[in-house]
Amino acid sequence: MVTIMGISRRLRPIAFALAWSAPCAISAQPIEPPPQSQPAPGPATGLSDSAGLRATVFGTPPEAMAPLPAKVPLYEINVTLPWRLPVPEILWFDAKLRVWLSAQDKPAPLAIVISGTGSDGNNKTISILRAALYGAGYHVLTMPSPTFSGFIVSTSSTGVAGDLMQDGQDLYAAMQEIIAHLPRKVRITDIDLLGFSLGGANAAIVKSIDASEGKLKIHRVVMINPPVSLFSSVGRLDRLFAATIGPGEMGVDLLYRRLYAQLANLYRASDRLELDEKFILTAAAVTLKTDAEFSQAIALAYRLQLVDMFFIGDLYAKTGVVIDPEHRPKVGDSLEDIQRDLRAKPFADYFTKVFAPYYLKRRPEATSASLIAANRLDIIADALRFDGDYYAQTNSNDLILNKRELDWLQDTLGPRIVVYDHGGHLGEIGDRRQVADMLDMLAGRWPRSAP
Amino acid sequence: MKTAVVMSVGLLALSGCASQMVSIRAVPDQTPAADNAAALANAAAFAEAVATESAAVESAAAETAAAATASGSPPEAHRGPEAAPLLTPEDAPPMHTYDPWERFNRFAYRFNARFDEAIFLPVANTYRRAPSPVRAGVHNFFANIAEIDSVINYTLQWRLKYGLRSLERLVINSTIGIGGLIDAASKLKLPGTATGFATTLAKWGMHPGPYLVIPLLGPSTLRDSVGFLADYGAEYGINVAGLYRGNVSWVLGPVNTIDQRANIDFRYYSGGSPFEYETIRFLYVRRRLIEDVGLHANERPKKPAVDSPAGK
Question: In B, which residues are within 8 Å of A146 by CB distance?
Fold first, then answer.
């Protein structure tokens, strides 16, 4: 007779896995505030400065965090959407749309939060927003970004992510489906939308779609660190990648070798008995010191998300950049070479080789230039300017914006945007003031009248 | 009979996840206030750890630089025999990983992901609803039994300081800690780190061998799998308090497994990435290789051949 006692210890090593892969994993850890803020070098970093880069990587320090509730109940909802495209065999795990709900016991407004580029609906950033909103009495539904692998496969009607209007329509349809299937005990009095990073732009577009279709009657929208032009923001991140890591696979390889050697030396010097998560976090804080290193971490995290979206787009659009449409990979096949090829490709390649060919074929009147123009927030400029229910929060050192884009946001939204002088990209989320302002905006108490 | 019961429960659970439009299930509550308080409480300790590590790196780097400028020859020639030679980026193994059994591994990975999603994780989530003192007791109990294996292996690795520490922990926790239910030793500033035959084999210089995804258990290498079997064999052989054989093991085994799973914050494919297999393999093998570097602190690691994948 065989018993299984003791087998379980084998499970432990996998716990380590994600800590190393995501620089954002260190955002729960406190760091010393940087002594002063100086402009980060290079043309690629938008408005960011030294403090902005740090805040982008580490997030809000715990001492600056707004009061959060002790307990937030959580439901995971998996939805099979009727319009889903056939799921490729190797993406079997992305067949259902997964969203999360925290419901109040009493009737309450519903706040729907849309995640940032390539991110799922239950990450660290979203958990902070969920806690703040739930604490303020909202039901909270959190959704992945339309550029998240799990969304593209389960929900996208094209498989080619990144078109603001198309993604907005898919999101809008998915929201209707989810809300229609919520348990009856969840009594909704009003619906508001929030989104951060690309999700901010998605939220605004969804509201504008709802304004004409009226199926959800979305009330207010708060965009947190939104891009103005999707392509100019990702172009900036691509330049950041090229400038700090180097173009192509060579740069990634060099970065990896340096990190490996640093980590191994640190580990050996530390006299530790195992390489655990705590060590990784400490090592990350030791290793990440200069602006260049912060920039590398940001650029790499972004590129790894792009790789997934690129892969899936190429698979669905049959554009043959890395996947031969006649010989699609199967479950047992290695994807390592494909992954390596994609790591070296910037967003510009996704646009010219997958996105543009796909959409130009379906929209005969479109051109490359018109596709780029259609991915700017100014396609809903009138709504942003004249509808008082659009709000935004951003930072003067957000690396995804340049001066002109920030000016445009301020000019368009007028008093309905607040610009903080710190935080970089998403590094102010959860901060006392950010949370207080966000809640006031959602409740229609903004702009606050002078005391 | 028992096998039949286990299998039918498994099949039932698997059929339960058959497609339905919308499924809603409760997952453990989040505790943001407590999490932030913990982060705040850890801040000082964390800053201190960072400062210590930074100092260690800087002094090592300064030493290396000084030695290099003194003669222009490779730095390790001038370092004392007790000092570990520093790794350079050229010492890092290539980014691709040795995986001759990839086809099998990928199917095993998919099986594990499905099994975890359908059975393991829901059960672990249910278990997480138990009061936390109960879960801590269960966890400490099993950790205490595993301490025996650590004592044996630290001794085999000739790291007697740690072996002694594990032995002390075992004695303290089995007595003051009421049969291991309370981790009294950690409270007495005697924290432990478990070890096993896998590490012993590594210490003895055994090569990790090919990457291997073990069905139900997850990422491993050939060496780690052998080590795991040896751990199991040792525990089965010692059969402490008769827990490893007979009917009681059918209760304790699953409880141990569920406790372990509930303590791992990992979910298959939560990142949705088509390349998760690659990512996990990359991280697992690099982690093992770095731990091996740590085990052989005074040796310069062999320079990897240019085209030889990591782990070969």
Answer: none
Return residues 373-412 of A near B (CB < 8 Å). none
Tell me which residue range forms the domain holding B114. Answer: 104-204+226-281
- Name the domain count of chain B: 1
Residue numbers in B near A431 (CB within 8 A): none
In a domain, B53, yes or no: no
> pTM score, two decimals?
0.88
ipTM value of the model? 0.89
Q: How far is B254 from chain A (nearest CA, A)?
A: 7
Digit-coded pLDDT (tens) for B219-257: 999 999 999 999 989 988 888 888 888 888 888 888 999
CATH number assigned to the domain covering A63-229+380-442? 3.40.50.1820
CA distance B126 to chain A (A): 13
Of B56, B271, B273, which has the smallest distance from its Cβ to A269's Cβ? B56
A73 at B interface, C-beta within 8 A: yes
Smallest CA–CA separation between A366 and chain B, in Å? 31
> B42 in a domain, yes or no?
no
Q: Where are the alpha helices (DSSP H) in A344-431?
A: 347-350, 356-362, 368-373, 381-386, 403-413
